[in-house]
Amino acid sequence: MSSTAGAPTGGDVLKAPNVIEYPFSRTTGPVIGAFMTGMREGIIVGIKGADGRVIVPPQEYDPVTAEELTEIVEVGDAGVVTTWCWVNEPLTDQPLDRPFAWAMIRLDGADTDLVHAVDTDGDQAVMATGMRVKARWLPARPADVDTEADGGTSAGSDDSGYRVGHILDIACFEPEGVPE
Amino acid sequence: MGKERVAIVGIGQTKHQSTNDGSIAGVVRTAARRALGDAGMTWSDIDAVVIGKAPDFFEGVMMPELYLADALGAVGKPMFRVHTAGSVGGSTAIVASDLIASGIHERVLTVAFEKQSESEAMWALSVSMPFQPPMHAGAGGYFAPHIRSYMARSGAPDHIGILVALKDRLNALKNPYAHLHEEGITFDSVKDSMMLWDPIRYSETCPSSDGACAMVLTNEAGGDAAAAAGRAPAWVKGTALRSEPTMFAGRDQVNPQGGQDCAADVFAQAGITDPLREIDVVEMYVPFSWFEPMWLENLGFAPIGEGWRYVEDGVTQMTGELPVNCSGGVLSSNPIGASGMLRFAEAAMQVRGQAGEHQIDGARTALGHAYGGGSQFFAMWVVGADKP
């Protein structure tokens, strides 16, 4: 305990932790659920809008007409960077612990952009609008690994290192053509 | 009231349940679509959307109205979010009503929801603080001392709360949208249920529900058109909101001044001088059984200290002089943010004659009531079958 000048009694100041924890679960519904299931399977899906555009990630309701959307379509896991922003000093819990780019990525077959991280080994000079990138997936969870080990409550990237149905099942994107 | 008369021409709700398989967007969409269908309208007929829910941390989606714009056909239209804790469903409907009454919009869609399955609201309301003993667990723990105070003041016997719970749960059997359908519930089964927060038993407590409610409100021309098309509207005869701080010296939590003032205001607007005789049916926010006699007094239906006698005498039964919560009320369905709007909507359903098996024959004038927070936010409307 430390003494603080001006404390009312002049004595030590009591300190105690106050951790507020409040877990959430999410019912994703048929469309976002399809996207999450796709992530776990290692595929990316979008949805066809009323005007024929393929929206990725998929939306339940058309952003123009408000109609219910149902036509799920698979898109590629590689595409083109449409714009980007370099991160010199990554923060805790960001996808990479070395300098990287946040990028808008127009996946092959999509008409909207997906936000994700692009890893260029910390080299900003590699980044360019118009460059092609592809997803770097986490591995699928092996069949002999207990999928209920987390009680089924995992809210995503669960530190198992395997795909669980979360946007970070794609660890990041990387310039296309990088050897495995 | 504003310059325009306000009509309720469309009402929709979801089947309330412990876990709705839809997303948040899917749940609000279902209620909104049903309200539009009831109104004979489509998304493009709507000028503006007013949406309410209880605090965002109940689902952990901050400002959900932003992403719900697509689901509610609100892209490119004014969308307004209302926040008043548990009373929010009522306050939201009043904001929508005001947008019509003021002449700003002609047709407003109003929606309220909660998806309690996405978290545990009870523990969200039970944050413990360092160096303090835990004061309560959930809303029941907060309100139990108020009920004890009411019992001590009024001399009400223990079984009053049981009578209210039994009545509301039996009424819920007549409402296909109610969350709880407890076939075979009896006085003894309520009495024998676990004591959670003395004097509140398990069966005297609201459930945790997923659900939504929506209404379409229009101006007088819209109401007349609905009537001409054979879809009788409900007319808004008065609306009132009041709030007071959670704590202040001399505050009366059992009979809050805010509730008294709100009721007096809404009855004056509707020209009601004897609520017990002039109101045909009430949808009252009763999340714990004992709030029925407490609010009967707070709203002016019963003299102070006498509300419990009305319960005991069956006044609030569907067969009584003042039926309360024919829908089963909050005690049978509690999607928190929607619960206030359900009270308002059920009141409107009664005067429109569309309440099905829980309809009170000949209901012409009804009160919808909501409260929230620590009995500090109040919202009420009086609706009628006749144009004001």
Question: Which keywords apply here?
Answer:
heterodimer, A: 180 residues, mainly beta, three-stranded antiparallel beta sheet, 1 helix, 26% strand, disordered N terminus, B: 388 residues, alpha/beta, Peroxisomal Thiolase, Chain A, domain 1, nine-stranded mixed beta sheet, two-stranded antiparallel ribbon, globular
Runs of chain A with pLDDT <50, length 5+?
1-7, 150-156
Structural class of chain A: mainly beta
Output the helix-strand order of chain A. Answer: HEEEEEEEE
- The domain tally of chain A reads 1
Mean pLDDT of chain A: 87
Helix content of chain B: 25-40%
Number of helical segments with 4 or more residues of chain A: 1
Q: Please give the order of strands in the largest beta sheet of chain A.
A: 6-5-4-7-8
CATH homologous superfamily placement of the largest domain in chain B: Thiolase/Chalcone synthase
List the uncertain runs of chain B.
none
What is the N-to-C succession of helices and strands of chain B? EHEHEHEHHHHEEEHEHHEHHHEE
Description:
The complex is a heterodimer of chains A (180) and B (388). Chain A has 1 helix and 8 strands, in the order αββββββββ. Chain A has 180 residues and is mostly beta strands. Chain A has one domain. In chain A, the strands form 2 sheets. Chain A has a 5-stranded antiparallel β-sheet with strand order 6-5-4-7-8, with no helix packed on it. Chain A starts with 28 loop residues before the first helix and ends in a 5-residue tail after the last strand. Residues 1-7 and 150-156 of chain A have low confidence and may be disordered. Chain B is an alpha/beta fold and 388 residues long. Chain B folds into 2 domains: 7-119 and 211-234, 3-Layer(aba) Sandwich (Peroxisomal Thiolase, Chain A, domain 1), CATH 3.40.47.10; 138-204 and 238-384, Thiolase/Chalcone synthase (Peroxisomal Thiolase, Chain A, domain 1), CATH 3.40.47. Helices cover 34% and strands 18% of the residues of chain B. Chain B contains 13 helices and 11 strands. Chain B has helices at residues 24-39, 64-67, 88-101, 121-124, 138-154, 160-172, 187-191, 220-228, 257-269, 275-278, 291-298, 307-312, 336-352, and strands at 7-13, 48-53, 79-82, 107-115, 195-197, 200-201, 210-218, 234-243, 281-283, 365-372, 377-384. In chain B, strands 3-2-4-7-1-8-11-10-9 form a 9-stranded mixed β-sheet. In chain B, strands 5-6 form a two-stranded antiparallel sheet. In chain B, strand 5 (195-197) and strand 6 form a beta hairpin. In chain B, helix 3 (88-101) crosses helix 13. The longest helix of chain B is centred in the middle third of the chain and has 17 residues, at 138-154. Chain B is globular, with a radius of gyration of 19 Å. The relative contact order of chain B is 0.20. The model of chain B has no long low-confidence stretch (mean pLDDT 95). Classes of the chains: A mainly beta (180), B alpha/beta (388). The interface between A and B is medium-sized, with 26 and 29 residues.
